[in-house]
Amino acid sequence: MGPSAKFWSDILTAIGEVESFLEGVGSLNEYVRDLKTKRAVERELAVIGEAVNRLRKEEPGLQLDCARSIVGMRNRLIHSYANVDDKIVWEVVQIDLPMLRVIAEERLGE
Questions:
Q1: Which pTM value belongs to this model?
Q2: Cα Rg for the chain, rounded, in angstroms?
Q3: Which of 54, 74, 76, 101 is catalytic?
C-alpha cells in the first residue's frame, strides 16, 4: 500500500469512527450536550484533516472540493481549540464527510 492509499484508508477508518460515535445523536443540540462524543468526533476530524493535508502534498493535482474546509477544521481543532464552533463541526460531519467517504472508497476501489 503506497502513501496515498494509506491516507485514504486512514480517512475511511476515521469517518467510520465518527459515524459510530454519532449513532443515536440526531441533532446539533444533542451533539453539543455530549462532551465525550464531541471530543471523540473532533479527534477523528483532526486525523481526517491531517490525512487530507498530506494527500494534497502527495497528489498535488488532487481535486477535492471539501479539502479546504476539512483541513481548515483540523487547523482550528489543533491550533485554536478554544474557537471551535460546534455548528461548523456538525456541518462538516453532515455534509463533507459523506462526500469524502464516497471519494475515498472510489480511490481504494471499494
A1: 0.90
A2: 14
A3: 74
Give the active site residue among 33, 54, 76, 79.
Answer: 79
Beta carbons within 10 angstroms of residue 76's beta carbon = 20
Cell numbers found for residue 35: 462532551
Domain residue spans of the chain: 3-108
Q: Is 74 a catalytic residue?
A: yes
Candidates 86, 81, 21; CA nearest to 46 is: 81
Average pLDDT over residues 87-103: 93
Closest C-alpha among 94, 90, 99 to residue 64: 99
